[in-house]
Amino acid sequence: MTIETKLEASEPTTATPNSYSMTVKDFTDGGEVLGKGSYATVIEVMFRNKKAALKISDDRKNAHKTAKDEKEIMRQLTDLHKPYVVQLLGFMLCENRYLIAMEYMPNGSIEDFIDCNEEPLPLSLRLQWIKKIAEGLIFLHENHVVHRDLKGANILLDKDMNPKIGDFGSAAIMTDKPLQGMVGTPLWMAPEVILRESYNEKVDIYSLAITLLQIVSWSLPESDKTLHQFLVGVTQGERLELPKNLPHKLGKLITKAWDQRPDDRPSAKEILAKLEANTDDILSDSRLTP
């Protein structure tokens, strides 16, 4: 079955565990390393006789808190049984390290897929990805979760090539108080995050704009600026260059989503509505690789 057939015929699946408690007897070690972040390593394991991803936090105090917060957010989202996010399977505390078992995503991240496949998917299927990611953000924001590190590397592909939002290590719960803290990955950071101002879920919309550009252009523009110069530029309204062959309505949507003013960025729901309403126009206007 081709990638195109899988995407068009499939619906994402959800995990529905009865209990998230686990012991070391529930999984076997020894699989390949799937990823390594600032506070944890993710490895492939067999969990209750099924392939899974196991995140192992390091034993630093701040890593312990980050992992504890992450598993709690994942538990709340998984309890809702929706297909938009990587599902939690179980967790435990072992020798001051959190072990978090998660749904295994066999096709890796969108970023890895793009890096390993020089030939882009048809634009129609790239738009399907973007719509499903927007649906995922709607789900997060309706449940008061701000991801804070949305990017191609944190959007994973299941066996049928459906994208799911993963890695909630930077995520936070929205309350009556605005969020604070310089959290995320520089290229995807909204200006208010860089400036260490208070912020809300609109930082995810900014990150979605960069991710949308990453997917439709099948890469990201390179910059000869230093990281400091780039970040200062973002705070002054500078943005990555849009491809000249980008469909007009996609370019307009990206530009709106990375607006300097958070209140002027559309919601995830508004972005999805625009994509749905303009799909035919975007495809007919496309000068990107079809």
> Number of folding domains?
2
CATH homologous superfamily label of the largest domain: Transferase(Phosphotransferase) domain 1
- Spell the H/E element sequence: HEEEEHEEHHEEEEHHHHH
CA-based shape: globular
Strand content: 15-25%
> Which structural class matches the secondary elements?
alpha+beta
Instruction: Count the E strands.
Output: 10
Give the CATH architecture of the largest domain. Orthogonal Bundle
How far apart the termini lie comes to 20 Å
Uncertain parts = 3-11, 13-17
Q: Please give the radius of gyration in angstroms.
A: 19 Å
Helical segment count: 9
- Which percent range fits the helix content? 25-40%
**Mind summarizing the main beta sheet?**
6 strands, antiparallel
CATH class of the largest domain: Mainly Alpha
The CATH topology annotation of the largest domain reads as Transferase(Phosphotransferase), domain 1
